[in-house]
Fold these 2 entries.
Entry 1:
Amino acid sequence: MQTTTSDSKSRLPVAARVDAVVVGAGFAGLYAVHRLRKQGMTVLGIDAASDVGGTWYWNRYPGARCDVPSLNYSYTWSEEVRREWRWSEKYATQPEILRYIQFVADKFDLRTDYLFDTRVTAADFDEDAGTWYVKTSAGDRIEARYVLLATGNLSVPNYPKVPGLGDFAGPVYHTGKWPHQKVDFRGKRVGVIGTGSSGVQAIPIIAEEAEELLVFQRTPNFSVPAHNGPLTDEDHLRFEADLPKFRKSLENFGRVPSSAYSAPVPSDEEQRARYNHLWENGGESFLVAFPNLLTSQEVNDGAAAFVREKIRTIVKDPATARALSATTSPFGVKRVCVDTNYFATFNRPNVKLVNLRQEPIETITHNGLMTSTGRYEFDELVIATGYDAMTGAILAMDIQGRDGRKLRDEWAAGPQSYLGLMVHGFPNLFTITGPGSPSVIGNVLLHGEHHVDYVLRLIEHAAGKQEPTIDVTAEAQDKWVAHVAAVADKTLFPIANSWYLGANIPGKPRVFMPYVGEGYRTKCAEIAALGYVGFCFNETPVLSDSAKSA
Ligand code: NAP
């Protein structure tokens, strides 16, 4: 890397020229830096955090852990890492996941190519030079041929638009931006707003510590038990032995299978037996109980009723049990929470559920909040209101592609992309696990690996050209966007006000963003086998046979 720095002690390049900039030091970003380097390219990674970790750097709230089993939520690209790392639990805690990421960063010396504490603010494409100019909050101006946005789908915290938030006198913690030092809730009255995956994990732990806990719930979520437990060497060995099978299964991680549309509705007995079994085993495998769980309202109703019945048996107060039972959207079309003791926490004498459907928040006050019918006092406030998901981190940057077109304008009515990987008119810019790809459905870590590998192959494919540019055609993009929507429309997903649809952010266009169709990797491989149909190399589009003969 050629650099000129303003301060010889800082490794901050004020100006630099590299082959590739990677934005983000989470799982996908680190892997991208590793791969690009191995390919012999100069690379600069940039992250707003002070160290590696991505979402796992920020999400330090009590109870934070992954709801994908640790053995699956691990890189597949390094046999060495797999051999040397041992997970201690079925569902790893945030500190353990962060240690894993740090272990990988140390092992492959990945930090040396990163600028930390630095936020990318803008990126402009210079058509003549075939170069991106990447600008940062620290005043850097980096020239790069390629830009990989590994900015994470859940990385821009969403704060509730509630009057008075700034007036609260006590500490306010967002789960997605938790302090590094332990927050001690002992002897405190704590309010929590939000009952998605983050709230559902944090609430039982805070309840054990706080003197009093008020949970402000707008919409109840479906949650299934984790049944977490220790992992043994045998578990690791068994997983290694099953690795080929696991790798094969990646193809359809999280997708709605095509068999869903012809599958019969299982009998009540069959459903009950299956759900009982899955409830006892725990985890999000509940989502694949039946192929048509996310396409048939009738089958879905059975799963929803089963979970509601479980809540009634766990929660002693019938009114609280009712309030905790999700009824406004089908099971699984908002991300299902995976919990430890969540519902049972509401049996504790120090925990009270406030149902915001009955009494909406009117204002936060200096010592609590007021709803339409009540006044609640607490000393500390935890905000678990989620993220501006999938597009938030990308659109936080001012990205300008060919002919001065702005990504913010291109995506004003919702994200447009080909394969969730590239946007027409933004050459050599890659959205790793971007909207339009399976990304957050299934296992985002492994979807990220797949995207990085694909980008590297695209770059390799283009490498023969002088000053290579890779773009996608408007036609391929339009077709893909329509396909993503059509696949989602055949499922129950669009019914719910989920962050998959941007429905959690006031004013955000309501567009279903992840790809839930079958065979995403196969489609990507087929496109590659046909010379990358739908992509453009140095402005020459690769057309399908039918388009050529048209
Ligand atoms: P979330 O699922 O978006 O949940 C946000 C919660 O805040 C919802 O209950 C929402 O209610 C509530 N809320 C938002 N604005 C509000 C307002 N103005 N007033 C009152 N309540 C409000 O966010 P999250 O829990 O942070 O989870 C986001 C995603 O991150 C998850 O779906 C998951 O994919 C990932 N995650 C994973 C893990 C894990 O691996 N275990 C842990 C945490 C997060 P409404 O539903 O009414 O909007």
Note: The CA atoms of residues 202 and 314 lie 19 Å apart.
Entry 2:
Amino acid sequence: MRILAIETSCDETGIAILETTGALGAISPRAQIKVLADVLVSQASIHAEYGGVFPAVARREHAKNMMPLIIQALSEADLLRTPKNPRILGPKEKETLATIFHKEPELLEHFQTTLLGISVPAIDTIAVTSGPGLEPALWVGINTAQALGALWGVPIMPVNHMEGHIMSSLLTPKPAQNGKKVFSLSVPHYPALALLISGGHTELVLIPRGGNYEILGQTRDDAVGEAFDKVARMLGLAYPGGPEISKLAETAPRGQTLPEKLPRPMINSKDFDFSFAGLKTAVLYMVKKIPNLTPEIKALIAKDFEDSVTEVLLAKTLAAAKKYKVHEIILGGGVSANAKIRSTFHTTIARELPGVTLFLPDRTLSTDNGLMIGIVGLTRSARTQKTILAEGHLRLAKSATKTLAELRKKKG
Ligand code: KG4
Ligand code: ZN
């Protein structure tokens, strides 16, 4: 079983090709998932000029990188072959492609010049992010998936990006085979709790049973990654701001504190919602008020900001974990790469909830990539679709995926 996965929801163009034994959806925890290819182009340096992601620029860059990345992924997976004669499309196929790319003539042109020259590769299915994300960016991935599906005669399936962040945290590395990374996928013990923290989302999600997602709380304003990026900008740091804040915070002089502590917004509220806009504004006031913003003071601000975010995320997660008596806590999304958040969650959960397992994504899998989309695709029971729509505000729905546990139960 081989799956090609496409991710274009924000500013990373990610393509992965994964291989596993067994049929789609029937993947067991012992099954090995071999990463035949995992390629990525990040647009971060381009968006850095603007201090954030511009949808039209993201779309343009995805369109530019898409076909070369697919060719690169097929080549890495050793699935790239050139036929004796290039493929000639019939009128019906031409019409199908023209319809798919009717708003993106340059992508159609690019598709035809690169992909008609190769043989149909041994791929069984194509998974693509359908949301949430920036719609112009999502469409590039979706249209490419639809065109490849039509050209290669393989089914396509939509994947929720947030479910990808959850699943990628459940991967355990195994010994590599022929230089290719290999993972197995853990099956959580339910109920489980996921804290999803990315550039666009901050959500506490209860997973009562596999594939069932219940959003317990979310941010009322800025997402936590967005707050990292904006505060970084105030401190004169580059985009994406998360890793920059983290590096700066580590240089904060020990034993010193700011004259005034930053707030810990909503830390004592009885719900599971978050709010980071006020924290961001508090940093802005502080930056304006302090006449001489020395590197030490900047580092102290970065550290207190990171501490504030960590404390709030942790307090809410612990409260939800206790209330719903969860067996596992899963951290996912770009901000889960943060070293401070990872280590604080690790030590506090071990101390306060000793029976609870914490799943953290491999740091290289925290931020967006194609692999996380492929993993969700592999656990699906062949739920493919003819056409896929971009859904910028797609939510984690109840019963999104049949889980491994359910699938195993069914099989007895
Ligand atoms: O999941 P992701 O790659 O994209 C979205 O789906 O939004 O998350 C990107 C976010 C950015 O806001 C970035 O600043 C943040 O993740 N991020 C971090 C770190 N690495 C990435 N935030 C804090 N600490 C980090 N080490
Ligand atoms: Zn993401």
Note: Confidence is low (pLDDT under 50) at residues 399-408.
